[in-house]
Amino acid sequence: MASEEYGFEVVDIGLLTVTSGWVAASDPFVDPAPPAFTRAVPPGNYPVQLAIARLSDGDERVAFARLVFQADGHIERWEMAVAAGQDVATLGEDGYFGYGVDTGTGCFMDVEAGRSLSSRMDIDPSYFDELLGAMESWLVFTPDADSPCNIACFSSGWGDGLYPSFFGLDRAGRPVALMTDFLVF
Questions:
Q1: Source organism's superkingdom (predicted)?
Q2: Which of 49, 67, 122, 179 is the most buried (most CB within 10 A)?
């Protein structure tokens, strides 16, 4: 079996503002107000990075999305990101929890931003179309001008599917990064 070579480019798409300390990930057009992951993070402004895979046929895909909490942190171990009620012990060997994507888009957000997005979409149904029109491969936007909370959206690997997220933790168990794997590889 011949092996293929792939190239990667890491792209910084902007900063995500986390005010509550509770981060969530979802397809924002299907689930605009997802439940938070059970691991809290310090409030702050964090870089969002995408690993763009350059496949052998010339195609490009977002393979991984990463939210960086400690730029100089060292990841000692990975832990599946779960929401309340999700128990990793109930999964089979290759099982995982993740978020469903039905519009080819994933995102990271503070849960407060999710509530703002959901309200905005309820009030103005055309807001959905405005966002889709503004997005190319990624978009960082603020759904409520009166709040600093924003949402970082990005294309999701092969498109629709179920994608897991993981916290990279340092030796003391503090989050260094949150990563979504779009299962390109």
A1: Bacteria
A2: 67
